[in-house]
Amino acid sequence: MNVAVDPVRYVAKNMRLDLRLIAEMIAPGSRVLDIGCGDGALIGHLFRTRGCDARGIEIDMAEVTHAVAHGLPVMHGDADADLAQYPDAAFDYVVLSRTLQAVGRPREVLRQMLRIGERAIVSFPNFGHWLVRWQLLWSGRMPMTSVWDRPWHETPNIHPCTIRDFFALCAEEGYAVERWLAVDDAGQRAPWRRFVGLANLFGEQALFQLRKAGT
Amino acid sequence: MDQAELPDITHAHVAFDDGLTLECGVALRRLTVAYRTYGRLNADRSNAILVCHALTGDQYVAETHPVTGKPGWWEMVVGPGLPIDTERFFVICANVLGGCMGSTGPRSPRDDTDRPDAARWGTDFPPVTIRDMVRAQKRLVDHLGIARLFAVIGGSMGGMQVLEWAASYPEAVFAAIPIATAANHSAQNIAFNEVGRQAIFADPDWLGGQYWAHGRVPARGLAVARMVAHITYLSEQALTRKFGRRLRGAQQAALFDDTFEVESYLRHQGSSFVRRFDAASYLTITRATDYFDLAADHGGDLSAPFRGTRTRFCIISFSSDWLYPTEESRVIARALNRVAANVSFVEIASDKGHDAFLLDEPDFHRTLAGFLAGCAEHAGLPA
Q1: How far apart are CA B282 and CA B194, in angstroms?
Q2: CATH number of the domain at A12-126+162-212, please?
Q3: Composition of chain A by helix, strand, coil, percent to 5
Q4: Distance from first CA to last CA of chain A, Å, rounded?
Q5: What percentage of chain A reaches a pLDDT higher than 90?
Q6: A76 contact residues in B (CB cutoff 8 A)
Q7: Among partner residues A68, A82, A90, which is closest to B371 by beta-carbon distance?
Q8: Domains of chain B (ranges, CATH numbers)
Q9: One of B321, B329, B350, B355 is an active-site residue; which one?
Q10: What value of ipTM does the predicted structure carry?
């Protein structure tokens, strides 16, 4: 029996656009942990194009198997339980892409990210988007959009937040926001990124780079 | 039951005349390591993979077994174009210290006497540990002129050896793949092993361990040990799928014949095992697995032996393995996380139980092949 091994080649243009934006934020040669890394597209890209020591954690075993079978260092685990295992400052960047809203304890996960990594890069879908607000206001029911596309009783997204909420949490926890931007669903940069109120209304996703203030 | 002794055939081996001092303090004067290799070692000796066999395995990984005539135990995995591709890698497998396929063990002539007609060690063979087994393998690897193994791979007890390799010789292991294993035996593991040992002791042909001297083999006891162990290698689903409650023939009223198919299967497993394995080796090796406790060897901290390691790990477990359950693998993965080691960790969905690592499991084989391909890229191994 022959086992065909697909060639290990991820091309950036095939990556989700928000992953491409994240990749651009990461300095070459960095140590990176990608939490909720899926099939490992980002870590594969970071290794091949930026020479990073990039690793992943993923909760979906089928994705883990796929990633490891493509030569990527990914372990089965979840953000809530496994980050606590890592030593302090083990990574330069810890990435949490479109996963924050699905973890059990987002505040604790962020704390762990900034304990084990020097910087955290977090992306999440913005619950403050005008369409979400409009649907709730108009129909009086939980919004269903292209981003928030699962009914309330099925969704894994148990902790939705808005861009303003996230800024507030960063202030509370003493995190310096080094960079942030709001993007549309395709991950394209939105022009209102300097105005939080507008970004919170029109941005479908947000991307933040944090570090502990004073470090 | 077949009383035949194991045939004394010569296995390819290397002998080290300076011997080996075991952890228990006994110095073996002479160390023999029987081994097989597959594929070709490349010019810079960077493509060697050491495969570590399990409790009742041996060095005949990918070729017809000289005693049983059966295919190698990992022919699905090791060979040209297979996950451990012998067209790319140089694969080594050694019979473990304490084994009965040519390496120094209870069947070897005792060397604590200068008498030329020295009897076999038998049950006087000193207790060996997993670390002793690994140190014997290291001698072989040094002998072959290999400074760094590209990978060390093994399932079950072989996985324990992989962990010990990575802990004892981190610079000599680029990638480590412990499969369906644990950093120590649970009380349940030890308990099952003990049933097997007691079955051997209870056999009248055991003769207090002096069966060699009288040309006897405690075949019934060893067969029962194998039967018990074999149940632990399978999942309940696998047994049900293979045999269910099916009866053999129509003799439903028979009280002691092997009425159920599963009984007949186990008896066959037991009787064929005694034709290729030695009871004293079985005792020696099961003891080594029971005593294995990597954390205890390092002050109770399983992370300690891996601090600063640059080895790339891939830990693989199987969802229906209740002998070495996934949780035991997760313990290892987390210990490696605590020292920020590079670790991949996959649980393969399978209903075949512990034995899954020896069987046709495409996801497992893809994982193995992919991880090795990724490591080869990192190691700069020519494609």
Answers
A1: 11
A2: 3.40.50.150
A3: 35, 25, 40
A4: 55
A5: 75
A6: 333, 345-347
A7: A68
A8: 13-185+298-379 (3.40.50.1820), 189-287 (1.10.1740.110)
A9: B321
A10: 0.89
